[in-house]
Amino acid sequence: MATDKFLSCDQQNISSAFYSPTWLRLRRNLTYNILHTLRIKSFACARKWALDALINRLKSHSSSYEYHHTKIREHIQHALYSLFAFICFGEKLEDKKIQDIKDLQRRLQLSFDEFKVLNLFPSLGKFVFHKRWEKLRQLRQDQEKLMVPLIKARKENRKLEEKEIVALCSEFFTGGIDTTSTTLEWIMASLVKHPHIQDKLFKEIKGVVSDGEVEIKDGDLRKMPYLRAVILESLRRHPPSHFLIPHTVTKNVVLGGFLVPKNSIVIFIVVETGRNPNVWENPMEFKPERFLNNGDFDISGTKEIKMMPFGVGKRMCPAYRLAMLHLKYFVANLVWHFNFNCFGEGVDLTEKHEFTAVMQNPLEVQIAPRLYVQ
Ligand code: HEM
Q1: Which listed residue, 173, 176, 198, 306, has the most CB atoms within 10 A of its CB?
Q2: Spatial CB neighbours of 196, under 8 Å, sequence gap ≥ 6
Q3: How far is the CA of 175 from the centre of ligand 1 (A)?
Q4: Would you call 230 exposed, middle or buried from its count of C-beta atoms within 10 A (0-12, 13-18, 19+)?
Q5: Which pLDDT value is given to residue 29?
Q6: How far is it, in rounded angstroms, from Cα 82 to Cα 94?
Q7: Which atom of ligand 1 is found nearest the CA of 24?
Q8: Pocket, ligand 1, Cβ cutoff 6 A
Q9: Is 2 left (phi over 0), alpha (psi -120 to 50) or beta?
Q10: Residues whose CB is less than 8 angstroms from the CB of residue 76 and which lie 6 or more positions away in sequence, other chains included
Q11: What pLDDT sits at residue 9?
């Protein structure tokens, strides 16, 4: 599919129920600006804080040299909520506050399907689907109650209205956490299912990092092509979003001989693109090596579109670089600190659709600390 077909599309998402098209355009620019600043600031200390919390939680499930088992989804999610709360509010929040934010965001995200209809006819939908509109409004009020005090504490440096900042924070929590934590769980599942790949990754890390190092930082991550290949292969094989946000065609487009009329809604199927046997050899096989012989694989789809876990074109995920950094950081540090093994009957790759496409049976692992780190 040619990229220009993407360029003639625009997105429709739940925020349209709240905001005018002008504000939505502004919000996109704001998100870009904030993400640009984030990349520059890098938030290394936020990442380290979240990683420490994750490692401590996992350590409590593994004593010195013995194996213990745990489901890792809960721990990964907690770490990512800690990281994003730090990014949004600029401080290390206590566990209870992080749990409150998580509970609220989960309630919101798991109700998204119910709210989609409001977006189809924004002004009429509020009356016709009054109860759903009230539920959505209540959730936003709960968000404001929880986040405004945190924002007030930081407000002196910012020029936006508090309610606008709540919307942006919500955008970050909603867009950034489930996608990243689900991807992390799938990556760890593949590393547990294929111990030789975990070993190869560990060897790569060991070749770059000195023994006894407690944290692998950005500079080192850039020297690990196999790590990047593992992450890309997981995003191809298990993209957390199976579909893009619905797009609207802004002009008549002929695609494969069919006319897609202006204003029709188009759903792009991400998962099929990455598993297309005409493009990928043995697509269901987990084989990071396919990304090693590929030069610097272009995930943004600028030159060609072979997969699109972050979307493609002008509406692609504005945070894909930040997301790749988070994924590399957590995977490398986890594998550096612990050996992850299969627990019970093996890794079940069945998918289930929640807000993202998660593992139907959460990954349960045996973990043991590696000897290289104290
Ligand atoms: C593995 C991690 C991630 C994946 C796979 C992912 C994937 C996506 C996809 C597929 C879209 C829709 C693109 C389209 O419809 O064309 C999207 C949009 C978006 N993502 Fe991400 N994302 C990830 C991480 C993040 C993070 C960390 C943030 C924020 C910090 C974020 C913020 C957003 C926002 C704000 C949008 C909506 C953009 C718009 O309205 O145009 N995402 N993402």
Answers
A1: 173
A2: none
A3: 5
A4: buried
A5: 64
A6: 9
A7: 40
A8: 11, 28, 31, 171-172, 175-176, 179-180, 183, 240-241, 244-245, 309-311, 315-319, 322-323
A9: beta
A10: 54, 181, 184, 185, 330
A11: 46
Atom 10 in ligand 1: residue holding the nearest Cα: 310
| Closest by Cα among 140, 191, 130, 342 to 148 | 140
Positive/negative CA dihedral, 337, 339, 343, 348: positive
Please write the tens of the pLDDT for every residue from 69-98: 778 999 999 999 999 888 888 778 899 999
Q: Note the pLDDT of residue 265.
A: 86
Q: Which backbone phi and psi does 357 adopt, to 5 degrees?
A: -85, 100
- CA dihedral sign of residues 113, 115, 121, 124: positive
Nearest protein Cα to ligand 1, atom 3: 179
Count the Cβ atoms, other than its own, within 10 Å of residue 4.
9
> Does residue 373 carry a pLDDT above 70?
no
Entry pTM: 0.81
Q: For residue 252, give both structure tokens.
A: 């008549």
CA distance 82 to 219: 23
Residue owning the nearest CA to atom 19 of ligand 1? 317
Question: 105: CA distance to ligand 1 center in Å?
Answer: 16
Q: Atom 32 (ligand 1): residue with closest C-alpha?
A: 175
CATH architecture of the domain covering 2-369: Orthogonal Bundle (1.10)
Residue boundaries of the structural domains of the chain = 2-369
Least confidently predicted of 105-114, 119-128, 234-243, 282-291: 119-128
Q: Which of 42-46, 56-60, 79-83 has the lowest mean pLDDT?
A: 42-46
- 9 in a labelled binding site: no
